[in-house]
Amino acid sequence: GDPMDGAPARGAAGQDLDSVTSIFSGAHARWWSELYADATPSPEAHFFRQRRDRVLALLAQRVPRDGHVLDMGCGAGPVLAELRAAGWRCSGLDAAPDMLAQARARLAAAGLPDDDLHQGDCRAAPFPDASYDAVLCLGVISYVEDYSPVLAEMRRLLRPDGMASVTCRNAARPVWSDPWWLATHTARQVLGHRRAPQPFSPGRFLERAEVRRQFDRVGLAVEREIGIGFGPPRLAGAPVLADAAAVRLSD
After folding, report:
1. 65-74 confidence digits (pLDDT tens)
2. What pLDDT does 171 receive?
3. CB neighbours of residue 247 within 10 Å
4. CA-to-CA distance for 251 and 249, rounded, in angstroms?
5. pLDDT of residue 55
6. Within a 10 A sphere around the Cβ of 85, how many other Cβ atoms?
7. DSSP state of 57
């Protein structure tokens, strides 16, 4: 069937996405778009560009240029624009209207078609089964309290032997990049103290083992895991290197 643009930002899982879309609205949407500008020197911008480039390289290995790709949670369109410039057929889905506006502006500025972008919820995507050769879901699951439905939708939308690419904020990163957190984490492990469950907050870090369990649960087989970006290194949460040095160390 045809995609249902303008669907309300609430999916089968029940979490209201208003708090999430507000993070990607107005000036925030412009910030996310500008994060991919080559002149941005911050480690965060560097890591996001690395993520984009790594995903594009994986697609080039696995998906022919006449394949159909869905960028689920396409945001301001930094990956979408690269996909279209390289010749892939691709659709975009995002819950935040302002991010889709940024994506359309990016595509138009690059002289690329700005169609096939849809507002909707990644937990209930408005597309038919087995529609795509690849589904990208970059950073999205860190913003959804129960992300299992997102992974299940990816599985539903993929054609046989299709490729899913999922990224999230790794809970190991702040531990290994900050000696203070590493020390306290190790002490808790030695003393047998379990950290109390933290309430959900959009953009949270996720435990690798739990993400793997959720993949298994929906029937997605993990072929490869890649870590992107070590830093920036911190001590008790405070940066200890200038941005350029943090980027060099991470690389």
Report:
1. 999 999 999 9
2. 87
3. 21
4. 5
5. 95
6. 12
7. H
